[in-house]
Amino acid sequence: MKPNGTSLNTRSNGHHLAYDLLNDVSVDEMGDDHVASSSETPMREDAFELSDDTKIELIEGHFREIMNILGLDLTDDSLKGTPRRVAKMYVKEIFSGLNPAKKPIATLFENKYQYSEMLVEKGITVHSQCEHHFVPIIGRAHVAYISSGKVIGLSKLNRIVQYFAKRPQVQERLTVQIANELKAVLQTEDVAVIIDARHLCVSMRGVQDANSSTVTVHYCGKFKDDEATRQEFLRHVSEPTATL
Ligand SMILES: [Zn+2]
Q1: Is 16 annotated as ligand-binding?
Q2: What is the CATH number of the domain that holds 203?
Q3: Which of 61, 117, 176, 177 could bridge to 39 as Cys pair (CB 3.0-4.6 Å)?
Q4: Whole-angstrom Cα distance, residue 103 to residue 149?
Q5: Contact 41, 173 (CB under 8 A)
Q6: Catalytic residue (one of 129, 162, 171, 177)
Q7: Is 201 annotated as contributing to ligand binding?
């Protein structure tokens, strides 16, 4: 179900979002309230029919047009490479997590030590982009799981967070997507994710609040059902991080 029962689906040509039923006011409100339509990133079926190189070429042309419309002089040495740089950055870096082919492959290991306590990986850097304004969301993720007999390499936890962050995102959805992936990979329901992040669309525009941050949590399994487990996780997260 889309917000307000309105249609954000694509038109038949597949290239234009249909905002027919949304006026400017509701478009602004939806962005400022950061409403997400579902826990899946809304993507078209033909999302990967174009190659990365073709996407870069097309975005370069469109971004040049945006700069042109803003009145920027694209013959200027400093500006002329910008459309290409932005296009490459979108496709190869900051939105590369849209492509399922880029999802990190997490190899499971037998839990030889029979470690059945909680494992917490905290302070994972989150660099994402708000899907309503295309400006950064910057923060930290804290993830935890209780081994079902299998473990994954620690760096894979960071990679999973980064993969889902490299999409246009809504923080709540990012939190749920990370938790769902951890559950699938680790074959356990006992998973927790907290993200504490700043939204540049809140600090540099709109209400212009430079000091607020947004915390989203997703608890599953024992983290949801058992108060002591949840408290232990929160205690680990709030302890000062080890210094080297
Ligand atoms: Zn935003």
Answers
A1: no
A2: 3.30.1130.10
A3: 176
A4: 23
A5: yes
A6: 171
A7: yes
Domain-located, residue 243: no
Q: pTM for the whole thing?
A: 0.85
DSSP structural state of residue 102: G
Range of the domain at 65: 3-102
131, 181, 218, 220: the catalytic one is 131
Catalytic (active site) residue 133: yes
Q: How far apart are CA 63 and CA 77, in angstroms?
A: 17
pLDDT digits (tens, 9 = 90+) for 114-123: 667 899 999 9
Residue 220 annotated among the catalytic residues of the structure: no
| The length of the chain, given as a count of residues | 244
CA of 202 to the centre of ligand 1 (A): 7
pLDDT tens digits, residue range 188-200? 999 999 999 999 9
Active-site residue, 177 included: no
Angle, alpha carbons 136-142-148 (nearest 5°): 135
Active site residue 62: no
